[in-house]
Amino acid sequence: MRRFLLLAWVLAGLVAGGLALLLGAGPAAAWLWSAAALPVAVHVAIGLVRSLAGGRIGVDAVALAAILAAVALDEAAAAAVIGLMVAGGEALEAWAEGRATGALTALMARAPRRTARIDGEAISEIDVADIRPRDLLLVRPGETVPADGTLEDDAATLDESALTGEPLPATFRRHAALRSGGVNAGAAFRMRATQDAAASTYAAILRLTQEAAAARAPLARMADRWALGFVGATAVLAGGAWALSGDPVRALAVLVVATPCPLILAAPVALVAGIGRAARRGIVVKGGGALERLARIRTVLFDKTGTLTPGQPRLAAIDADPALGRDGALRLAAALAQASTHPVSAALVAAAVARGIDPPLPQDAAEVAGGGVMGRVDASTLMLGSEGFLHAAGIDPRNGFGLVAQVAVAAGSIAWLAMDGRIAAAFVMSDGLRPDAPRAVRRLRALGVRRIALVTGDRAAAAQAVGRALRLDQVFADQSPADKIALVRAEAAAAPTAMVGDGVNDAPALAAADVGIAMGAAGTAAAAEAGDVVLLVDRVDRAAEAIAIARRSRRVALQAIGIGMGLSGVAMVAAALGFLTPLAGAVLQEGIDVLAILHALTALRPGAEERLGADLPPQAGIEERRAEHAGLRQLAESLRSAGEAIDADDAAPHLAEIVARLRDDLLPHQRAEERALYPEAAARLGGQDPMAPLIRMHAEIEAQVERLAALLRLAEGESWHVAAPELRRTLFSLEALLRLHLGIEEEMLADLR
C-alpha cells in the first residue's frame, strides 16, 4: 500500500507543479516538483541501503543519483518525471509479485482441534493438545485421527490419501498402528494414543511444510542481475561527460536517460501480462517471481493420486462364474453395495448404473466395519468385501480366481463376491490415468523439460504401472512427506525443479521445490497455499501450459528490456555529447519506456508454444459426441463378453442384438463425427490432414462390423461351431479397435471445446 501511496503522491505533485507553471508561478512549480520527487529519493535510498547491507547493489542507485542531482541542479521537472517512473515501477512490481497471504492457514485448519477421550464409562470432549500417551480415544465417522496410536477395536477403515497418496481406503485390524491425519471412512472405533498430538504424523507434516517454505531463498529482481555492470558503465559515462565538458548538467542528462526504467518497468509488465494470460486459462501464478522461476524449469516431479490419476476407485475388470456372467455378478454386487458407504461400494453401484443395470434393494443387509457387507438378494445369501472378510466366514477367495488376484497386484485391489457360501465373482478396482495425463507429459517433453518423474506414497506396483503408461524417466514409490522433500531438494540441486501435487502430503514438497504447482480444483487447500502455481481447472496438462506461458512471458520481458536499454544506451551517448538536456532526456526516456512497455504487453497474446485449445461452433456437436463415448465403451465391453460366451446356447440372439447396436449406435456416431465435428476440428488443429488417422480407423471399424454381420448370417445358416472361432476373433478385434479409437480420438480433441 505504501508504494501505491507514493505513486499517488508523485502524480499529484507533478500535476500540481504543471498547473503552477501554467499560472506563471515558476518557483512554486519547482518546489512542488521537488517535493514530489524527494520522497521517492528517500524511499529508493532506504531500499539501496538494505541492498548494500545484503551484499548487492541495485539499478535503483542510478535513479537515486538522477533525482538528487536534478534537484541540486534546479532541474526539478526532470526530477519529478524520474520520480514518476520509479514510483510507477515500484507500484507495478508490488502488484505483480504480491503473494497470497495466510499461507498454511488451510493446512492448519484441517488439523483436528477436539477429540473424544474415553474415561471408564464416560466420554469427554478434550482439546487435541491435551492428548497424552496411553489415552483411549474415540474416533467417530468422518473425523480425523488426532494422534498416532494403536487400534483397540477389531477393524477400522481409514482414508489415508492425504498421508500416502493411496486413493483406496485402507483396512486396519486390532493393534494395528494408526497415524494421525487419516480420516475415518467407516464406523466409529477406539484407539490408544502412543504420542501426544504435537509429536504425531500430521503435526510433522505441518512443520515440514513451514520449514521447507522458509528454506527457499527469495528470487532477486530480474533488473538487479545486471545492476553492477550497468551502474558502473553509467558512472563512467556520466563522469567522463562532466570531465570533458566541465558541465555537470551534461552528466545529469546522462543519468536521466540512464534511469533504467525499461529494467524496472518492462520486465514486471511482461510478467504481469503472463500472469493475466495464465489466469484466463485457469492458472493462478502467485507473482512475477514464481512465473520467472517457472520459465526455467527443466525437471518436473508428479504426485500420482489426484494428479496423474483421478484419485477415485473405479471398476477395472470383472471375473465371474460363467453361470452367473459379468453383468449378473455386477447386478448382485451393486445391489448389496447399496447398503454400504465405502468408496468401492459406490464405484460398483456407479458401474452398474453406467451399464444400464438396475440393482434391486438388498434384504437384511449389514456392514462390517473395515471388512465388507452381507445380505440377501434374490433369495441368495451374499457377501461382498475384502479377502480377510471372506476368510473370516470360512471362504477362500482365491479358489478359482488366481488370475484376477495376480492382476490385482498391479491394477489395484479386489472386492470379492460370495454367493451361498462360494466365490461367485471378483471385481478389480483401480485408479486409472487422467485422460489428459499423457498429453501433459508429451507437452512437457516438447517444451524441453529433460526429466519427468513420479513421486508418490502409493505402492510400488501401482506407481510403476503409471510410470510405464506415461513413459516417465523414473518412479519413486512408498515416499513419506519427508522423503519427498529430500527427493525434491536433490532434484533441484541438479536442475530447476517443479513439483505437481494435490494432497496434504504433497504440501511440504510443493514448498521445497523451485516451483510448486498445486491441483487446486480438486486438491486440498493446503497444497494450493503451499504451491507457487495453482491450477483452478481440474486438468494436469495445464501444468505444461503454465510453463509455456511463463517461458513466453520471460522471453518477451527480455526482449522489452533489450529494446529499452538499447535505445537508452544510444540516448546516453547523445546526452554525453550534449545533444539532450535533462528535461528532454527525461521525456525521451518516458517515450522509450512506453515503447518497451508496449512490447512487454504482447505477452498478453498466446504464443505458438502454448498450443491452446479453441472453441468449436455448437453445430460441431463435440459435447454430444463425447457423451456418447460412455455408451460406446459399454458396447466394447459387450463385444468382449460375446466373444467369451460364443459357445453358449443363447450366443446367436445375443450376437444379433450386438450387431444391431453397432449399426444403430456406433456407425451413426461415426458418420456424425465425419460430417460436422472432424472438419471443424481439423481447421483448428492445423497440419495437412490431422483427422485422417481417425477417419481411417472409422473405415476399418465399419469393415469389421460388416464382417461380423456376414459371419453371423453364415453361422446361422451353417454349423455354428464352425463359424464360432472366426466370430470370436472378429469380436475381440473389433473390441480392441473400438477402445483404441475412442482413446485416441479423446486425446486428439481434448483441447477443443
From TrEMBL:
The keyword Cytoplasm does not apply. It is found in: Cell membrane; Membrane. InterPro entries: ATPase_P-typ_cyto_dom_N (IPR023299), ATPase_P-typ_P_site (IPR018303), ATPase_P-typ_TM_dom_sf (IPR023298), ATPase_P-typ_transduc_dom_A_sf (IPR008250), ATPase_P-type_domA (IPR059000), Cation_Transport_ATPase_IB (IPR051014), HAD-like_sf (IPR036412), HAD_sf (IPR023214). Its EC number is 7.2.2.12. Residues 111-210 form the P-type ATPase A domain. Its main location: membrane. It comes from the Bacteria. Residues 622-750 form the Hemerythrin-like domain. The chain crosses the membrane at residues 30-49, 226-245, 251-276, 556-580. Pfam families: E1-E2_ATPase (PF00122), Hemerythrin (PF01814), Hydrolase (PF00702). It catalyses: Zn(2+)(in) + ATP + H2O = Zn(2+)(out) + ADP + phosphate + H(+). Belongs to the cation transport ATPase (P-type) (TC 3.A.3) family. Type IB subfamily. This is P-type Zn(2+) transporter.
